[in-house]
Amino acid sequence: MFSLLYGFWQKMFERVEYRVLILGVDQVGKTTVLERIKVDYKIAASFRPSTILPTVGLNIARVEDPACRLVFWDLGGQAGLRSIWDKYYREADSVLFVVDCSEEDRLAESMEVMEECLSNNDLVGVPVLVFANKQDLVNTGKATTFSMETLGSRIMERGLFESHSIHHVTGGSAYEGFGVKEGVQWLIKTMKTNQIKV
Ligand SMILES: Nc1nc2c(ncn2[C@@H]2O[C@H](COP(=O)(O)OP(=O)(O)O)[C@@H](O)[C@H]2O)c(=O)[nH]1
Ligand SMILES: [Mg+2]
């Protein structure tokens, strides 16, 4: 009887765990986003971007939100490292796809990579957050920046969200620290309500 009640109590109070896959081409700021999440959720005491090295394997962070437990997987984005991404797709409850809004010359590459990921059967129906990173550089007069509207229309033109009814494009700066936590909150809300994978 005790074990039955204990099992019931455990089930009632156990925290759901969600896995978020951070994807995007190299240098867009994926690991910086992860470091910012660690600071936002008090896993790391301070934000030290200068210590971030190019990702070769996988960075993992576990985060406790009042609503759930989150596991973030940040994978290396260089062309040669992307071949392992699909090994993680089946386990992912959502995708956080990072784009660098300060390098227009790499937008086409980001779109191609996003298309390849999102069309994979193992990711169909998974909530997708596209994070337009490096917004701190957009209003500095840097010539190669592009707007979130441009990003949104490129995504729509290519029909990238056709098999992802739950999607959102948002922006911010992992470096300066705005927009990331709001994006994570959106992911939590949608993962909780998504019936396909959860
Ligand atoms: N200005 C600016 N630079 C950023 C931002 N996020 C990342 N970076 C820089 O972009 C470079 C690549 O970042 P990194 O996180 O290693 O990218 P990754 O290869 O996608 O993991 C580093 O020099 C970061 O400091 C941002 O929001 N604003
Ligand atoms: Mg990295």
UniProtKB/TrEMBL annotation:
Cleavable signal peptide: none
GO cellular component: a single term: Golgi apparatus
Entries under SMART domains matching the protein: ARF, RAB, SAR
InterPro entries registered for this protein in UniProt: P-loop_NTPase, Small_GTP-bd, Small_GTPase_ARF, Small_GTPase_ARF/SAR
Pfam families: Arf (PF00025)
Gene3D superfamilies: P-loop containing nucleotide triphosphate hydrolases
NCBIfam families per the UniProt record, alphabetical: small_GTP (TIGR00231)
Family statement: Belongs to the small GTPase superfamily. Arf family.
Name of the protein this chain belongs to: ADP-ribosylation factor 1-like GTPase
Organism whose genome encodes this protein: Chloropicon primus
